Amino acid sequence: MKHINSENLKNDGYNGIEFKENLESNWFISYSRLDNKVYEGQSPFNYDLSIFEGNLVILTHDDYVDQMDLILIENPKTFNVTVFWKLTNNYEKDWLNNLICELNSDLEITKSGKDPEGELLSFKNNKFDNLQSLIIYIDQEFFYRNFETY
User: Fold this and answer.
1) Are the C-beta atoms of residues 12 and 18 closer than 8 Å to each other?
2) Which residue among 55, 61, 91, 123 is least crowded, i.e. fewest CB within 10 A of its CB?
3) What pLDDT, on a 0 to 100 scale, did the predictor assign at position 56?
């Protein structure tokens, strides 16, 4: 894998995974599948991920009123990354409709999702250097604008 791999992630010592380089945000990896090995963090988990191949991470943020997850899935054949969001306490199975964006293997946005009101998302940046910069950007431009913080 090009982006979600053991070169970018490390074991956190508690059967979880974290980014090797500091993410500098309050997003933490609550669940991951890396090279077919599952690492579970501290967050409730209610996803059916069997439909996806490849590596993935689910991040949780603890500064928002609603507990939310950010899901990043890397396609093992194309290295494209798909990003979804989900309210953690919402057990609906339609979280797959909560697309934030799809990126090609160079981390350029190729498709935008919609905000919680159903409006198409627009991104000032359409290319990212790494997953950490993508996550921070999504936090500032999507989550912070659409959800209440403490």
Assistant:
1) yes
2) 91
3) 93
Spans in the chain with pLDDT lower than 70: 41-46, 89-93, 150
pLDDT for position 18: 85
Residue 104's pLDDT is: 97
User: Token match 């921070």: residue?
Assistant: 136
User: What pLDDT, on the 0 to 100 scale, is given for residue 51?
Assistant: 85
Is the separation of the CB atoms in 38 and 29 below 8 Å?
no
Q: Is the dihedral of CA 102, 110, 133, 122 positive or negative?
A: negative
> How far, in whole angstroms, is CA 145 from its chain's centroid?
17
Burial class (CB in 10 A: 0-12, 13-18, 19+), 57: buried
- Alpha-carbon span 8 to 121, nearest angstrom: 28
Please give the structure tokens belonging to residue 116. Answer: 């919680």
Q: 78: Cβ–Cβ under 8 A, 6 or more apart, which residues?
A: 104, 105
Please report, as a single letter, which amino acid is at residue 101: C
Tokens of 53: 């191949």
Residues 39 and 56: beta-carbon distance below 8 Å: no
pLDDT at 48: 74
CB 91 within 8 A of CB 46: yes
